[in-house]
Amino acid sequence: MYGVIVMEKRSNTERAGFYLRPIAVLQGFILSQILVLLSSIILALVVYFSSWMVSPRLLSTLTHLGVFGGAILAGWRCHNRAWLHGVVVGLVAFLIYGFVAHGGPLLMTWIWWKGLAKMTFVAMLGGILGGLFSK
């Protein structure tokens, strides 16, 4: 006759407004690194045994796909705010890639900001997709 209302107890981190699970972000970041490493090894073998040359666009696409996969895992492992977990995975990966490639972040170039926006968007979509899989 009457509906039952279930009161859910919130944890201390949810009351404080901190919704980020660092272990989910770390797992997503590690998976993204593994995916990028595996795709790099496969691509290196293909290039070694053929006369095909790799374009920078293909390398960028493979990197974005690896981060997308890591963001899916981070969104799947978290309890809420999957998009935020994906964005953090993308930001961490992009900052590390920028530091490794150029010896430090290039904060004042348009190309750097454009790459950051693309990586963040792709990682956010991955986090959202992972959050949808977890429900």
> Averaging pLDDT over every residue, what do you get?
85
The 3D shape can be described as: globular
**Low-pLDDT stretches:** 1-8
- Which structural category fits the helices and strands? mainly alpha
How many strand elements? 0
Q: Largest sheet at a glance?
A: none
Q: State the end-to-end CA separation.
A: 28 Å
Helix percent reads over 70%
- Over all CA atoms, what is the radius of gyration? 18 Å
Number of helices: 5
Fraction in beta strands: under 5%
- What is the N-to-C succession of helices and strands? HHHHH
Tell me the domain tally. 1
Note the main attributes of this structure.
single chain, 135 residues, mainly alpha
